[in-house]
Amino acid sequence: MTSRPLFRVLEPTAPAVADATIHIWFNDQPLGVPGGRSVAAALLAAGIQRFRATPVSGAPRAPYCMMGACFECLVEIDGIPSRQSCLVMVKDGMRIRSQEGARDLPPPADFRLPQSAEGNAHGH
Ligand code: FES
């Protein structure tokens, strides 16, 4: 059985720009990827197959729809979590990390525990 690539590159409109290799970081590893496309497409072209892990089971996930509908492609880009990598254009020097589980949410600026919740059930 012969294997065929999952993706085929369409005829580029500006080949010199679209296919020029740029350099990014993925999980602290340097990676040369084709430019002129989304982060998801660039990572897939470089052979990356695991973009994130589910919050409950930790199952590996990867892009599915490539159009912003499924949220399977979430990664951290330049320190910002939960970015849809299929909707962000890849840029030279980007630092991308796989997203492990749920992202951390900072508490709102005016967040304060209710008085009764500050101690434990025994008032300690
Ligand atoms: S691949 Fe579906 S939202 Fe990005």
Topology, please?
Elements lengths: L14 H4 L2 E6 L2 E6 L4 H7 L6 E2 L6 E2 L12 E4 L2 E5 L10 E6 L24
Parallel strand pairs: 1-7, 3-7
Antiparallel strand pairs: 1-2, 3-4, 5-6, 5-7
Bound molecules: FE2/S2 (inorganic) cluster.
FE2/S2 (inorganic) cluster binds next to loops.
The pLDDT mean sits at 84
Distance between the termini: 67 Å
Shape verdict: elongated
Ligand catalogue: FE2/S2 (inorganic) cluster
Overall structural class, as computed from helix and strand content, comes to mainly beta
Residues in β-strands, percent = 25-35%
Helix-residue proportion: under 10%
CATH architectural arrangement of the domain at 18-100:
Roll
The unreliable regions are: 117-124
Question: What is the third-level CATH name, the topology of the domain at 18-100?
Answer: Ubiquitin-like (UB roll)
Explain this structure.
This protein has 124 residues and is mostly beta strands. The protein has helices at residues 15-18, 39-45; strands at 21-26, 29-34, 52-53, 60-61, 74-77, 80-84, 95-100. It starts with 14 loop residues before the first helix and ends in a 24-residue tail after the last strand. It has a domain at 18-100: 2Fe-2S iron-sulphur cluster binding domain, sarcosine oxidase, alpha subunit, N-terminal domain (Ubiquitin-like (UB roll), Roll), CATH 3.10.20. A hairpin with a 2-residue loop joins β1 (21-26) and β2 (29-34). The model is unreliable at 117-124 (pLDDT under 50). The chain is elongated and about 65 Å long. The longest helix is centred in the middle third of the chain and has 7 residues, at 39-45. Strands 1, 2, 3, 4, 5, 6 and 7 form a 7-stranded mixed β-sheet that branches. Residues 40, 63-66, 68-73, 84, 86 line the site of FE2/S2 (inorganic) cluster.
